[in-house]
Structure formats: C-alpha cells, structure tokens
Amino acid sequence: MSDALLDRIAAANDLQELDSVRVALLGKSGEITAKLKSLGSMEPETRASEAPKIHALREQVTAAIGDRKAALEAADLERKLATEKIDLSLPAPESVSGTVHPVSQVMDELAEIFADLGFSVAEGPEIETQWYNFTALNMPENHPARAMQDTFYLEPRTPDEEPYVLRTHTSPVQIRAGKDRGAPTYLIAPGRVYRSDSDATHTPMFHQVEGFVIDKGITLGHLKWTLETFLKAFFERDDVVLRMRPSYFPFTEPSAEVDVGWSMEKGRRVVGGQEGWMEVLGSGMVHPRVIANCGLDPDEWQGFAFGCGIDRLAMLKYGMDDLRAFFDGDIRWLKHYGFGALDVPTLSGGVSA
Ligand code: PHE
Description:
Layout: H1 3-11, H2 15-26, H3 31-38, H4 44-83, H5 102-116, E1 120-121, E2 127-128, H6 130-133, E3 165-166, H7 172-181, E4 185-194, E5 205-215, H8 220-235, E6 242-249, E7 252-265, E8 268-271, E9 276-286, H9 288-293, E10 302-309, H10 310-318, H11 331-337
Parallel strand pairs: 1-4
Antiparallel strand pairs: 2-3, 4-5, 5-10, 6-7, 7-8, 7-9, 9-10
Helix pairs in contact: 1-4, 2-4, 3-4, 5-10
This protein binds phenylalanine.
C-alpha cells in the first residue's frame, strides 16, 4: 500500500477525522471504491492482473483504518481515565452529598413517636420460614389466607426442605419478638416486605411497620387511642380522624381496617378533615392462638397489633405520587425529596424535618 494512503490514515487525529478519511477512501464515491468500479471497464487481461491488487489494497486500507480507530479509542479512554479521576476518600462537596431517603426518614419519625409512647423497635429476618410468616400467625397450610398475599418462595436447597419465603409482611416479628421478649411487650417493627405485585402503587419490595402490644387488660380502646395518637403526631395535625371498619386477618380477632379522613388543600388530598376516607392500615386484637405461639397464656395476656405501609405514609405526608420512583435511585428525585443527614426528627422540634 502506498505510504501516502497510510500517512493520511495516521494523520487522522480523532474519530471524526478518521471517519472522513474512511469515507474519502472506501465510501460510495471514495477513491478505492472508484478503483473497484473501474475494473468493470478493463480489458479482461488487465482486470485479471489489477483485480487482486485493488482488492488487496482495500483490505489493507480497511485494516489500517481499524487499527487507527482502536488506537484512537484507547487514547480517548486513557485521557478520560486521567482527567475524570475521582478520589472517593475526599469529603463530598455540598453539591454531590447524599440525602436521607424519605422511607428512612419516616422510619426515624415512627421510632421517635412510638418511643415517646414507651414502644421499642424490633427487627426480624427478610428471608423467613413459612412457620413464622404464616403458620404461627394462624394461617395453617392450605389456609385460603395464604393465597391473599402473592408470596415469593425460595428454591429449596434439598428436596425435602420446606421452601423459605421472602416475608410478605412484618407480622412474623410479632412471633419472634413475642417469644424473645415475653410479656408485657410494646414494640414496633419497621422493615422491608415482599410481594409479587408491580404497578404505580405496588412494588415487589415495599416497607411496613408492625405495631405489637401484649399486656394485661388490653382492649380495642387502647388500639384506637394509640393509632389516633400516632397518626396525629405523624401528620402533625389535630384534625386527623379515624374510622375503623370490620375486616378479617387470620392473626387478629376482631380485625379492623383503619381509614383516615382527608380533605382537599390547594388541589391536593391531604390527611386531616373528613371530606373523604382512605385506608391506611390493618389492625385488630391479637388472636389467642398467636399469643399461644409466642409462648404466652392467652387467658392471662391480651394485645393489639397493626400493620401499616411506610411508603404510603411517606407519600401522603411528603406529597410524592409514584411509588416506583422510591426505588429508582434517581439522584434528582433523592435531592428533591431526600432529607439532610442532620434533620433528625424529634418530638420537641417537630417530627418532620
Ligand atoms: N399483616 C397485615 C398485612 O400485611 C397487616 C396487619 C398487621 C393486620 C397486624 C392486622 C394486624 O396486610
């Protein structure tokens, strides 16, 4: 191949220039393409001797352009690596510092509110046995209630292992904490739960907080007062009104779904007032079988329990409308809805930051 051609390829200083050279040589009306086209009008003898040369030239040029391209790309990467270096050990400037996710913020608010009522925080595993997630909560095998929640089952490790599940609710913590702590017990258990469900208001992983109280002489009145006190403190309004509707959960008897009153403010539905109702949690008096499964005597101890979606609480309080955005990790969303690391909720300073 002529040095002149090689020089032109080598002279291309960036990918754009190289592409212009490629078009000038190999493009539709490129120099080498013209040579290939000229084969058609040659005498058969000339063509026989010229064709292999022209084809070889095209291959060489193609290879040389490929090499140059690789070299330019490598140089480009080197340059980027050298100039875009970040030192992760440096303190983050304000412009890139992280925020506290609204779910974490709400969990801190809940812990603060309930600590003030004498509740402690309990945790349980997210990979749970079916006994804790269902059976101990009065949902024996083949109980239709097991089908109420779209459960993720884990692959058993041996043919006779009963599959573990991703916990479908925080209620198994009732049993774990009940067994560990005995009675009296006043606790909340916030955490991740999993159900096979996905749309604008459902994600396969979401957050719940369980409330669980065991003591002597506990009544539905204690449940209602606790929920009212909690929701008023959380939404920071005195006009929060609750409505309890009879419902069914296998682990509580009687069971009630709790609605909270909303009203329209500046075109938005906010909690408070009574223009309409929306459901915020499930609750009830702890079923005697559940108390027994905690190792306690149901004739001696009573209790109440409730379970509430944390993401939903965050959406209602802080005004987001798409649950999926909670888990996208989009830095702009986090900047907008996130909280400063030092905005710690306190009852005296206001639970919301
Ligand atoms: N575990 C129930 C759910 O996820 C909520 C609940 C908790 C209801 C405790 C009653 C008592 O739907």
